[in-house]
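Annex B.
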Amino acid sequence: MALDDVVFDQLDVAAEPLDERLSQLTVGHLLRHSAGFDRLKTADSMVVRDRKPWCPYTADPLSTVRLDFTPGSRYAYSNLNYCLLGMLLEQSTPEFRDFRALMEQEYDLAARGIRFIDGPYLDDEVIYDFRHSGFYGEDYWRYFDFKALSSSAGLSGSAMALAELLSSLRTNGRFAVTQAPAEDICRENVFRGCYGYSVFSYQPSAERLRIHVQPGLLYGAPSLAILDDEGGVTVWVGNGTRASGSSTDAMLEQLYAALDAHYSGAASH
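Beta-lactamase-related domain-containing protein: predicted structure tokens.
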């Protein structure tokens, strides 16, 4: 696949798109979360309670989707972006035709103790704190299609295992997510204001540390993966949700301050 491949042309969709802007949607837009899907405006079809998502099982409903904004005009995180990318990957690797099998082949997850979850809890899963998770509790897994969520959420493993995987990919040049060219719509001084290829970049000012972030949140389990421009990789995995505000943003603020101070101190000595 190429970044400028048109998604609608690559997927087997039976009808022409009702929203003509879908014909502009590219692989690059999906990776950079600038595709036009905004879950704050339109319900996230991947995590609707008790409803089986259409993606990744069929691409036909894509023709009826009404985009929330023109592709490339701004950023907005969407799980559907990842699901469509997963469908494209399955289509481009006919020897697998299964996203999970492809990920295992590419990244040797099992050997690292990383697994896809399907519910109920794995033997080595921690106890999650659901006090501030709305109407979801310990049986949250009953309400989601984890097979469909595979390309956007639902991995189990240690923070160290993920950090080592990301570090090895970066060292071997197989993790170009931080190398996306700058776009006019980028605002790196705010969280989620400038997406690269799946990660968002953050740098409050030119003289401060620049980082690239992939936050995660499955109910009761917030997490962060941070790649910084000094070559470091930081992973945090939590087991509870804050009473108010974003768990990942609150932790990111603390981790950024610590990392910025660490590298500033190292430079001064």
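Residues 36 and 67 are 5 Å apart (CA to CA). The longest strand covers residues 211-218. Further annotation is deferred to the next reporting cycle.
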